[in-house]
Design goal:
Elements: H1 2-26, H2 28-37, H3 52-73, H4 83-86
């Protein structure tokens, strides 16, 4: 019984690996883009098991959030110097 269960687990693991490798081959450019935008250079857990539409949605969401946050990333404008400060 134990041997049958282990064999079943191995088959399931091989199926998942096959799905991840297939997804990696099909979506290599999208996945590379996801790795570039992540903070630590790693893909989120389970991303390779998702479908292409889900991966593209994640990228679009990230890009939209990044665009919305651009104004928060700007440096403050320097204050103009007053005439009294320049005379010193």
């Amino acid at each position: 019984m134990e041997r049958k269960r282990r064999l079943k687990q191995k088959i399931i693991a091989l199926g998942r690996m096959n799905a991840m490798l297939g997804n990696l081959r099909e979506n290599s450019e999208v996945i590379l883009q996801m790795k570039q935008v992540s903070l630590d250079g790693r893909l989120p857990r389970g991303l390779l098991l998702e479908k292409r539409s889900s991966i593209k949605f994640d990228i679009e969401t990230f890009n939209m959030t990044k665009d919305l946050d651009k104004k928060n990333e700007k440096r403050p404008k320097p204050k103009p110097k007053s005439p009294t400060q320049t005379a010193k």
